[in-house]
Amino acid sequence: MASKAKASFDKNAKDIERLLELHEGDGGKAPGRRYGLEVLNKSAIVLLVAFWEAYCEDIAAEGLEHIVKNAKNADALPIHLKKVISKALKNEQNELAIWKVSDDGWRQYLSDRFEEMKKERDKKLNTPKTVQIDELFASAVGIENISKSWKWEKGMTTEKASKKLDELVTLRGAIAHRGANTTSVKKSHVTDYFEFINNLTARTGGAVNSHCIKVTKKSLWPRVRIRKPPAK
């Protein structure tokens, strides 16, 4: 069973698939450059980065909500979340504010600040490169260096994944700000980056789930048990 964030990403990703279909419909599958279709490739890159950014925000929020709901007590919270609460309380003028998080009060406190914290994170996530994504998950759910989970077969190391993500986001920025004057974007670039981001969401979601299990002893997305039909 996938997370709600991944389900949303997969739904959004159909727009990328549609752009690739349009490219193939107009240009065919034969080798060679296609003229007049590069706008589809550039549009796909812009959408892909937007969907990646949205996924990271969604899975971070989903993880935090899970921790708030299922952590046994405040002691189980990751150190970064404890720091978030501590900093917020210090900024309050009321000297009795500390009592808001006594006993199980921290759950309600984090829930009440949920949207406010999201807005604060979103302001910082102005570009979803490696550094910003690491900061997002550290502050949102207490995962340090989530980018270390970005590795898979075919020789994709964490270093290569981080570099490739940053190159993709840089390309998106060039397209958004310079449009037609940016570097040529081919269909092969789109398909390669599309596969890359799909892998990246899977590894990121897996890291968040493992973290949630460590903190709460419960999976972010419990497996659905399939009941066997009764024997005849």
What would your notes on this structure say?
- The protein is mainly alpha-helical.
- It has one domain.
- It has eight helices and no strands.
- The chain has helices spanning 4-27, 38-70, 79-91, 105-112, 114-124, 130-141, 158-178, 187-216.
- Helix 2 packs parallel to helix 6, helix 2 (38-70) runs parallel beside helix 8 (187-216) and helix 5 packs antiparallel against helix 6 (130-141).
- The protein starts with a helix and ends in a 16-residue tail after the last helix.
H and E string: HHHHHHHH
Strand count, sense and barrel status of the largest sheet are:
none
Number of helices: 8
Describe the global form.
elongated
Q: Work out the radius of gyration.
A: 21 Å
Summarize the structure.
The chain is an all-alpha fold. The protein has eight helices and no strands. The protein is 66% helix and 0% strand.
What distinguishing features does this structure have?
single chain; mainly alpha; 232 residues
Give the helix/strand layout.
Layout: H1 4-27, H2 38-70, H3 79-91, H4 105-112, H5 114-124, H6 130-141, H7 158-178, H8 187-216
Helix pairs in contact: 1-2, 1-8, 2-6, 2-7, 2-8, 5-6
